[in-house]
Amino acid sequence: MVFEIKLAHPAKNAIDTTLMAFVLDQLREAAGRPVLITGSDNAFSAGLNLKTVSRFDAPAMRMFLDRLEHFMSALYLYPGPVAAAINGHAIAGGCVIALCCDYRVAVADPKVKIGLNEVALGVRFPPRIHAIVSHRIPVEHHERIILGAELVDPATALDLGLIDALSEDPLQNARDRLAVLGALPQEAYTATKRDLRGRGETDLCPDAEHRKRLDEAADTWISDEVKNRMLAALRR
C-alpha cells in the first residue's frame, strides 16, 4: 500500500526545519513501504524558506545546512520505492526533493518551473546534496542544469532528465508507477538501490572531508551579497 506524503507549508511549501521534521517523521512511519510525495495547492516546493535562511549567522547556517543534508540523504537513501508527483513549481531545494525520488512525474503545464538556481543565488551546494544532484542528473546536462542555474518548463525538464514523465494527472501516474515498483521483490529492490546510491550519508561524502566542504559551502550562504539576492528573490 502506498504511503502518501503531502508537502503543506507556507510560502509554496518552503523547506524549513518544520517541514523537514515532518517529512522525516513520515518516512519513519512509512518504514520501507512505497512512498508518494506531492505538494499542496499549486506548488510542489519552491525551495528553501529564504526569509528565514537569510537571517542566519555562520553557526546557524552550518547547523541548518547539516540538517538539510541529513533530510535529503534520508529521502535519497530510503529503502523502498519513492515517487514525486510534481504538481507545480519545484525550484532549488524543491527540485532536489524530486531528484531524491526514484520516479518523478510532473504536471504537463508550461507555466510550471523546475530547476536548480543555487548558482544564480551565489551559493554552493552542500557536499552531500551536490553528490545527489550529480548522480541523478545526466552528466551531459550538468553544465546547463547545475552551472547554468536555469529554471525550465516540465517538457524541457523531461528532455534534460530532471523528470521521468509528464502527465495531466501526475498524482495518479505516480500511484500507478509505485504499484509496479512496489510489486517487485522488496529485498532485491532495497539491496540494489543501496548498491546504486550507498548505505548511508558517508557514502555520499566521507566524514573526513565532509566538514571542510560543508564549511566552505556555508561560507557562501552568509555573505551580504547572497543575502541581498535572497531578499530580492522573495520580492519577485
Polypeptide structure, described:
The protein is of the alpha/beta class and 236 residues long. The protein is globular. Strands 1-2-4-6-9 form a five-stranded parallel sheet, with helices on both faces. Helix content is 56%, strand content 14%. Helix 2 (17-30) runs parallel beside helix 4 (58-76), helix 4 (58-76) packs parallel to helix 7 and helix 4 crosses helix 13. It has one domain (3-173): Alpha-Beta Complex (2-enoyl-CoA Hydratase, Chain A, domain 1), CATH 3.90.226. It contains 14 helices and nine strands.
Keywords:
236 residues; four-stranded mixed beta sheet; five-stranded parallel beta sheet; 9 strands; alpha/beta; 2-enoyl-CoA Hydratase, Chain A, domain 1
Q: Please state roughly what percent of the residues sit in beta strands, choosing from under 5%, 5-15%, 15-25%, 25-35%, 35-45% or over 45%.
A: 5-15%
| Total individual domains | 1
The whole-angstrom Rg is 17 Å
CATH superfamily: 2-enoyl-CoA Hydratase, Chain A, domain 1
Class per helix and strand makeup? alpha/beta
How much helical structure, as a percent, in the residues? Answer: 55-70%
State the low-pLDDT regions, or none: none
- Oligomeric form of this entry? single chain
N-C termini distance: 41 Å
CATH class: Alpha Beta
Number of strands: 9
CATH architecture classification name: Alpha-Beta Complex
Supply the number of helical segments: 14
Remind me, CATH topology? Answer: 2-enoyl-CoA Hydratase, Chain A, domain 1
